[in-house]
Amino acid sequence: MYVVFLAGGIASGKSTVSAELVRLGAWRLDLDEVSRSVCSTGSPTTLALADRFGDDVVDPLTGELDRHLLAERAFSSPEGVSSLEAIEMPAIRSELVHALTNSCCAATEPEVCVVEVPLLDRVADLVDLADEVLVISSPLETRRQRACGRGMDVADFDRRVSAQPSDAYLVGHADTVIDNSDGREHLIGRVRSWWRSHVADGWTSPRKVGTEGRRS
After folding, report:
1. At a CB cut-off of 8 Å and minimum separation 6, what does 71 contact?
2. pLDDT for residue 118
3. How far apart are CA 89 and CA 45, in angstroms?
4. How many CA atoms lie within 13 A of 83 on its CB side?
């Protein structure tokens, strides 16, 4: 199975691309959902986070993780970030590997799995599981206009952007970049062209043939 890590900033068009890939036959997996799964009520990961960041990051009545409080504490220092990643990432990797190889996936036998990655810089230790990192790129102002057109406050958009990896980081860590600066129709066309190209070459990973930084 060919595994694609799909990344892009807020309002870049990542969801549109993911939906089109599913329509073309890919199996979709959201890394956010994987993260929530490993931090479920009573899980070893949740208990380890409480032990490191304080018992109050877990609701005493429901056992649910208070993600907002956890983020406040974890991201308050480099040491906190390192601790968070040391606890979460092995569990996320294990769960992701399981998801890519479990009976559900085997039953459907998809040729391609697209893994939606919210924050590519947070999952550097997982990138080796992908055959290709596909980044959807769009100018910041274009993305701001799209987000605000959907009802998002400008300040909220800017705050979210500041917490995400930069466009330079995303492009620099991509195997392939698909441009989304000129609307949905053109984006879908580029995605279909990307798909056809891979079908023609038998889903050969760009990492295996040494191709870097391809653009569509």
Report:
1. none
2. 85
3. 10
4. 17
Helices 67-74 and 78-101 sit at what angle, rounded to 10 degrees?
130
The β-bridge partners of 115 are 5, 29
Q: What is the identity of the amino acid at 113?
A: C
Of residues 168 and 109, more confidently modeled: 168
Burial class for 93, CB neighbours closer than 10 Å (0-12, 13-18, 19+): middle
Where would I find the beta strands (DSSP E) of the chain?
A: 2-8, 27-30, 112-116, 132-137, 176-179, 214-215
Joined together, the tokens standing for residue 133 give 């990192």
The β-bridge relationship of strands 27-30 and 214-215 is: unpaired
Domains in the chain with CATH codes: 1-26+110-216 (3.40.50.300), 32-109 (3.40.50.300)
Q: Which 8-state DSSP code applies to residue 114?
A: E
More confident residue, 100 or 141: 141
Residue 211 is predicted with a pLDDT of: 46
Q: CA end-to-end span of the chain, whole Å?
A: 23
